[in-house]
Specification:
With 323 residues, the protein is an alpha/beta fold. It contains eight helices and 14 strands. It folds into two domains: 169 residues, 3-Layer(aba) Sandwich (Rossmann fold), CATH 3.40.50.2020; 140 residues, 3-Layer(aba) Sandwich (Rossmann fold), CATH 3.40.50.
């Protein structure tokens, strides 16, 4: 320790989002730590640290998207390896936090999976979690360690603000995204509309009604994550059917599982904007997706956490990002 802080820090990465980790490393000007993360022949995760971590402030960059279970185990085993190698502090940097959708018990005999995963990461030995746009903010309270919860929306807001579009309406694809949509709309000084839908079963959404004026408007659908894209594409097609001039969509996390790319490509969405919090799989069949990088913000956060300086001003960096 030096003046109440660690004398130096190291950055490591699993296979969850190596491109983002490398970009963060380049911005900070510090190479990624030597670490082999692979598998044994039976599929078990194998981790081997290639350099000392004793006394260092260590940051593990690992999104827990697909393959979710493998990436989660990689993170936990890397944490355990560093704990047993006497790391000074272990910070789990999880740009996309998987298993966040089961954040409450809505009917009998359901698991509280978000809490379970929080416990697993804590018990593995993490001292802090740094993440972005949890599916539900209350998940922060499931951890018994500090959680720095970053918001990705400023990246998306700035991107569309720089487009200087007229007749804009910000649209919530469901009632759960209304608060997020209001915040987005206030920045662009635009009205909002709400898609009223009913979901008969998981990953299946039925559009019921549209609350708000969308005819002849440039509509921007706002969500926190896009998984199979059923909700967002159904909403886009409904907006177009109601006379919307153009339909755009944006979300922090691009999960894009199952038929997501095909649905987006065939839908009324003209452009789908996401952040690179999650490693996007091969998207050759869809040319509508634009990815914005969150590396500058995570690089800034890592340096501020290491130096024990406030995180409040961290989003000032968004203003420096070119669309």
């Amino acid at each position: 320790m030096k003046n109440g802080c660690f004398s130096d820090f190291k950055i490591f990465a699993g296979n969850g989002n190596p491109e983002l980790a490398q970009e963060i490393s380049q911005i900070i000007g510090k190479p990624l730590g030597a670490c082999k993360v692979g598998k044994f022949s039976d599929g078990e995760v194998s981790v081997s640290l290639g350099e000392t971590v004793r006394g260092y402030d260590c940051f593990i960059i690992q999104s827990t998207g697909a393959p979710v279970n493998t990436n989660l185990m990689e993170l936990c085993i890397m944490i355990d390896a560093m704990k047993r190698a006497s790391a000074g502090r272990i910070n789990a940097v999880i740009p996309y936090f998987g298993y966040a959708r089961q954040d409450r018990i809505s009917k009998a005999r359901e698991p509280l999976t978000a809490r379970l995963v929080a416990d697993i990461i804590s018990v593995a030995g993490a001292d802090r979690v740094i993440t972005m746009d949890l599916h539900a903010p209350q998940i922060q309270g499931y951890f018994n360690i500090p959680v720095d919860h970053m918001i990705g929306q400023p990246f998306l807001e700035k991107y569309f603000e720089d487009k200087h579009m007229d007749n804009v309406v910000i649209v919530s694809p469901d009632h759960g995204s209304v608060k997020r949509t209001r915040t987005f709309a206030s920045l662009l000084n635009a009205p909002i509309a709400i898609i009223d839908k009913r979901r008969p079963k998981a990953n299946v959404a039925e559009i019921m009604n549209i609350v708000g004026d969308v005819e002849g408007k440039n509509c921007i659908l706002v969500d926190d994550m896009i998984d199979t894209a059923g909700t967002i594409t159904g909403a886009a097609d409904a907006l177009k059917a109601m006379g919307a001039a153009h339909v755009y969509a944006c979300a922090t996390h691009g999960v894009f599982s199952g038929p997501a790319f095909e649905r987006i490509q065939k839908s009324a969405i003209e452009e789908m904007v996401v952040l690179n919090t999650n490693k996007v799989q091969d998207q050759k069949i869809c040319d509508k997706i634009k990815t914005l990088s969150v590396a500058p913000v995570f690089a800034e956060i890592i340096q501020r956490v290491f130096s024990n300086t406030p995180l409040t001003p961290v989003f000032d960096i968004v203003e420096k990002i070119e669309s």
